[in-house]
Amino acid sequence: MTGRTSAMAYDLTDIKNRMHKSINSLKDELSGLRTGRASASLLEPVTVDAYGSRTPLNQVATVTVPEPRMLSVQVWDRGLANAVEKAIRDSGLGLNPMGEGQVIRVPLPELNEQRRKELAKVAHTYAEQARVAVRHIRRDGMDALKKAEKDGDMSQDDAKKQSDLVQKATDDAVKEIDAIVAAKEQEIMQV
Predict the structure, then answer these.
(1) What is the C-alpha end-to-end distance of the chain, expressed in Å?
(2) CA torsion 161→165→170→173, rounded to 10°?
(3) Which of 112, 142, 166, 183 is most buried (most C-beta within 10 Å)?
(4) How far apart are CA 126 and CA 152, in angstroms?
């Protein structure tokens, strides 16, 4: 019975899905990095003290982009407007919100060259973390293949073919990560 388990432990589709999840995670992290223009996703990490607990901003307000360098936060409950404004100010994003009743305007300051370079470095750090995650997934797949071959569930030729497929999936994932971070860096450095 142990032989069947090792063959089932290797699943190329699962490996590709896990790599894709790493890439999606990278995209999510990069969407939070500020660029020269406003994006509603910039405020996604912000949490508000609301109703006795920390609540994500998108559960108490709607974020829109009325202008390229301005965010508008429409708070649903007037009583939370001050808490939302404070959460944005204290978020560490370097933003200075201006409250106007239930609407909070958040102007985005101009990014200087030094700040752009710092953001590009952060983007590269996120990309390297994604590459490491993909390499770990590759290692797991290769280990499962070696075990299946050792247990006699897979011939040496099949194991070689499958390991080539795992390597190709890894190479494709790393290429996609590199393309994503290059595009994000270009977006950050654009004045």
Answers:
(1) 62
(2) 170
(3) 166
(4) 40
What does the alpha-carbon distance between residue 117 and residue 126 come to, in Å, rounded to a whole number? 14
Question: What CA–CA distance (Å, rounded) separates 59 from 37?
Answer: 24
Q: How far apart are CA 60 and CA 10, in angstroms?
A: 43
In terms of Cα–Cα distance, which of 131, 129, 46 is closest to 93? 46
* Residue 81 tokens, joined: 């407007």
Per-residue pLDDT of the chain (191 residues; tens, 9 = 90+): 334 444 446 788 999 999 999 999 888 888 777 666 677 777 877 889 888 888 888 889 999 888 888 889 999 988 888 988 988 888 767 788 988 888 999 888 777 788 788 778 888 988 999 999 999 999 999 999 999 889 888 888 998 999 999 999 999 999 999 999 999 888 888 76
b/e sequence 122-140, b meaning 16+ C-beta within 10 Å = bbeebbeebbebbeebbeb
